Amino acid sequence: NRLNMPYEKRAEVSRNSIAKQLFTIMATKKTNLCISVDLTSSIQILNLLEKVGEHVCLVKTHVDIIEDFNTNFVEQLKQLATKFNFLLLEDRKFADIGNTVSLQYSKGVYKISEWADCVTVHSLPGEGILKALNSTSSDKNKGVLLLAEMSSEGNLITPDYTKATVRMAEKYPQLMTGFVCQNAVTFDDPGLVQLTPGVQLEKPKDNLGQVYNTPEKVIENGADVVVVGRGIVASKNPETEAVLYKNILWKSYSKRIMG
Ligand code: 5IU
């Protein structure tokens, strides 16, 4: 099964171009760390990425929290992605009807489709949301990470919802980069990425419902790419901390593929 397959082999079977690129970057840079840059200043984000860019395969953004968002920021973000060889995930969590999501994806202030390699999407509204993203023209190759589970306490996602989400994704193999989840929700397609947020070494939770696991635990649970936000971003020395997470995660993955 996919848990024992090395990333470079999984790249070969990915049907989505972003999943293929991501697996290839992970194998090349020897990192499965994704940093979540939940900062409200564009300068702070760019400065942080200068420091940690070489240690991550993916950068996860929430562009709608940036106070001084502008097109120059997007240009610099893209340049850093090229310089350090990482991909961009906008964690937009689209959740509306297809027509609205198509507009939210490509229009407005953020024009997400022009710079994001992939986006997060809720399965809640039904298949139309995937149909919309599939057909909306984009400046680049694109990918969707579908939310099959969440890390937060008391979330309303049930096992049936998770299963139905996996089934929905099966209809759009070219669009699907993978799933955002806490457990191995499917073993069917080794070309899909399991992205897991809710990871920190310091604390077991925050004050607003976030629940943390350790890096070792989430890799055991099937994570391929692991999202760390405040564990790195809020630390005194983000670069040192990024290296620490990177090393633990890569060691856990190496152990996993050994069986
Ligand atoms: N995020 C989660 N849990 C989820 C999903 C997304 O934490 O189930 I889906 C996002 C929220 C935040 C980041 O942007 O991942 C985690 O940040 P911290 O590591 O700072 O908690």
Short description:
Keywords: Decarboxylase, Glycosyltransferase, Lyase, Multifunctional enzyme, Pyrimidine biosynthesis, Transferase. The protein has 259 residues and is of the alpha/beta class.
Please give a structural write-up.
The chain is α/β, with parallel strands linked by helices and 259 residues long. Helix content is 40%, strand content 15%. The chain has helices spanning 7-13, 17-29, 42-52, 71-84, 98-106, 128-135, 159-170, 215-220, 230-233, 238-257, and strands at 33-36, 58-61, 87-94, 118-122, 143-147, 176-180, 193-196, 225-228. The chain has an 8-stranded parallel beta barrel with strand order 1-2-3-4-5-6-7-8, surrounded by 6 helices. Helix 1 packs antiparallel against helix 2. The longest helix has 20 residues, at 238-257. The mean pLDDT is 97. The structure holds 5-iodo-2'-deoxyuridine-5'-monophosphate (5IU). Residues 36, 38, 62, 91, 147, 150-151, 180, 197-198, 200, 210, 227-231 line the site of 5-iodo-2'-deoxyuridine-5'-monophosphate. 5-iodo-2'-deoxyuridine-5'-monophosphate binds next to strand 8 and helix 9. Pathway: Pyrimidine metabolism; UMP biosynthesis via de novo pathway; UMP from orotate: step 2/2; Pyrimidine metabolism; UMP biosynthesis via de novo pathway; UMP from orotate: step 1/2.
